[in-house]
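Example record

One chain of 275 residues, shown exactly as stored in the release files.
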Amino acid sequence: MNILIVDGNEKEASSRYIKMNMRTQYEVYENVLNSLSSDNLNIHTIHPAISNNNLPQGINLDDFDGVAWTGSSLNIYDMTTSIINQIELAKELFTKKNKIFGSCWGLQVLVTAAGGKIRKNPKGLEAVVANDITLNKEGLDHPMYKGKDSVFNAFCWHYDDTETLPSNAKILASNNKSEVQSVIFDINDSNIWAVQYHPEFDPEWIAGLMKQREEILLKEGDFNEKKCIDEEMNYFLNYKNLEHKINKDKYKDLINIKTHTLELSNWINNLKKQV
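Predicted structure tokens for this chain:
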């Protein structure tokens, strides 16, 4: 299958990950999609926040079986050139027969391009773990969540959430921080699955993000003191060693790679049925 990954990040953001010896967000996505597919995936990654000249010569947007849109540190209501480029790309993708999966920023771009509205969340930053995401009836019945617990935790980092949905969109999951933790909609010939969290993140990567953004976590009040950040960060760094004393039950759906990437596994399986 041919998969297009749309990297939502500007060059400076990706450089910060590299300086911390972390994978970039698009590399995280490339790795997880390859690990979840039993078949070889032909993956192309483009960077519309950096350049409009995205696809290699001889390849066009009709050549892909699925499109995955990464997270980003951008805020869509700023409407900079790098943001507008992504919205226009989404609108172009909507004219193709595409199956699109969006994570966090990906959801926000896709919702905006389809006529919805994103705002700064009045409830503030949701960081590291989105707790108690709950599937509604539509979510329980949707193939994105086949095999998923009805209430689960997920890795996350976002200041923004959805204020207004596209006209035919359906919410699949919510929690007390964001009403729209998951949404689906069809537009033109495209089918959209999108989540406000990050099923592609792994425990080691979220630990690196916590280290990079430690001051933000303390400033925003997500953690009361540095000691608490260090404990949770060290747990995620060493999650394979279950001798840790930190609340293992709380994070059982995060340290189980199969469980916390299930939305992406189900998306890939859905793509295979269409090919």
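Notes: The mean pLDDT is 93.
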